[in-house]
């Protein structure tokens, strides 16, 4: 059956289509056409002058709906995380494991393999954030669990290469080698540099070895200074590098965010990540990570000492923050939540834009950018 969502203003990732219809068939976008061009076989649904944009893609999601992947390595846990973020327009995400034990890591990988087999809506793959990070830039990661990447760690990781649509790992040069990064990249991993004091020159060497993204730009990394550009400078200056950024107004000052967006050399782009924790979609007052209490207050999540511990924001709110606070064009804000993460993950051939043959993953908004419904594979997963 072909379905036509009519009477909509549609942004395909590049261009607006006014008073048009989005055609969906077999879970894919079949085209965007004017009303006079509608196929007779299409079943029509009036969108009531809504706005349709590509579905949001979040490459760093620690939890949601009361669930943390670190606490619940199960198919049901992953399903609950995906469902929680679908309520805010996210149609594809990477459940993210924060630094933990080898046993928890293995359990998370197994749960991910089972989630893929179960075809959970919204599940894209996994992001392993650690444990091979820098203790000096640990952030909320437990220092007792951070360690160098050993040969057995690499072998276990290589064994799951190409097992997911997207498989991402955040590492620090302090605890990995360029040879390990090259092996991971060659086996299908998106290697991201983060939680590190790496110099510009070191970042360049690791990018040459296959690292292609930077994890939450500005946070837990060597800063941009006059004689030492650090990882921040490397991310902005190296055209082949993409970088995630947390747009909640707490992790990065809006002025720094705006400066970075203006400075970034392409074709690599800065894209939005939420770094969301289990609080999303709940009224929880906090959570526990690796035995430590994380407190939720006024939009922030912190350890007892005030260290930021993940984020308490969803993707639609992140998009609206950079549109309304930074004054970024709405179209560019949408691209930062959809097209650019798809490009960073190497899946822009199927996600991140509404082109014929691409997955019919999209979000329907009203005229004030409030979410009306979220669609994955041409089916409404959530309706407000």
Description:
It is a single chain. It contains 10 helices and 20 strands. By secondary structure, it is an alpha/beta fold. The strands form 4 sheets. An 8-stranded parallel sheet has the order 5-8-9-10-11-12-13-14, with helices on both faces. Helix 8 packs antiparallel against helix 9. The relative contact order is 0.16.
The percent range for helix content is 25-40%
Question: Distance N terminus to C terminus?
Answer: 25 Å
Largest sheet: 8 strands, parallel
How many strand elements? Answer: 20
- Quaternary assembly: single chain
Report the portion of residues in β strands: 25-35%
Average pLDDT, rounded to a whole number, is: 96
Q: Given the C-alpha coordinates, what overall shape results?
A: globular
Parts with pLDDT < 50 across at least 5 consecutive residues: none
Neighbour order of strands in the largest sheet: 5-8-9-10-11-12-13-14
Order of helices and strands: EEEEEEEHEHEHEHEHEHEHEEEEHHHEEE
Q: How large is the radius of gyration?
A: 20 Å
Number of helices: 10
Structural class: alpha/beta
């Amino acid at each position: 059956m072909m379905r036509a969502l009519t009477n909509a203003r549609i942004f395909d990732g590049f261009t607006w289509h006014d008073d048009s219809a989005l055609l969906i068939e077999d879970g894919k976008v079949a085209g965007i056409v004017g009303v006079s061009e509608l196929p007779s076989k299409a079943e029509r649904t009036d969108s009531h002058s809504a706005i349709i944009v590509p579905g949001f893609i979040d490459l760093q999601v620690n939890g949601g709906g009361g669930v943390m992947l670190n606490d619940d390595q199960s198919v049901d846990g992953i399903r609950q995380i995906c469902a929680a973020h679908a309520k805010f327009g996210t149609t594809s995400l990477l459940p993210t494991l924060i630094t933990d034990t080898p046993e928890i890591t293995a359990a998370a990988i197994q749960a991910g393999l089972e989630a893929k087999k179960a075809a959970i809506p919204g599940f894209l793959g996994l992001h392993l954030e650690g444990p091979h990070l820098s203790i000096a830039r640990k952030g909320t990661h437990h220092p007792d669990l951070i360690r160098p990447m050993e040969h057995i760690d690499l072998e276990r990781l290589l064994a799951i290469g190409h097992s997911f649509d997207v498989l991402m790992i955040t590492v620090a040069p302090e605890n990995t080698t360029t040879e390990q990064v090259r092996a991971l990249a060659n086996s299908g991993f998106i290697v991201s540099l983060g939680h590190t004091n790496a110099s510009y020159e070191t970042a360049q060497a690791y990018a040459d070895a296959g690292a292609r993204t930077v994890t939450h730009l500005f946070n837990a990394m060597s800063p941009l200074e006059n004689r030492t550009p650090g990882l921040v400078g490397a991310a902005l200056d190296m055209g082949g590098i993409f970088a995630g950024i947390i747009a909640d107004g707490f992790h990065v000052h809006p002025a720094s965010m705006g400066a970075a967006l203006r400075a970034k050399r392409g074709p690599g782009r800065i894209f939005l990540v939420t770094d969301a924790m289990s609080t999303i979609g709940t009224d929880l007052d906090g959570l526990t990570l690796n035995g430590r209490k994380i407190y939720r207050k006024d939009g922030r999540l912190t350890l007892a000492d005030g260290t930021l511990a993940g984020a308490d924001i969803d993707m639609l709110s992140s998009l609206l923050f950079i549109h309304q606070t930074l004054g970024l064009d709405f179209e560019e804000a949408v691209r930062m939540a959809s097209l650019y993460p798809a490009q960073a993950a190497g899946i822009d051939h199927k996600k991140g834009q509404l082109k014929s043959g691409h997955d019919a993953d999209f979000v329907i908004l009203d005229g004030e950018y409030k979410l009306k419904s979220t669609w994955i594979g041409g089916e409404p997963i959530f309706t407000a």
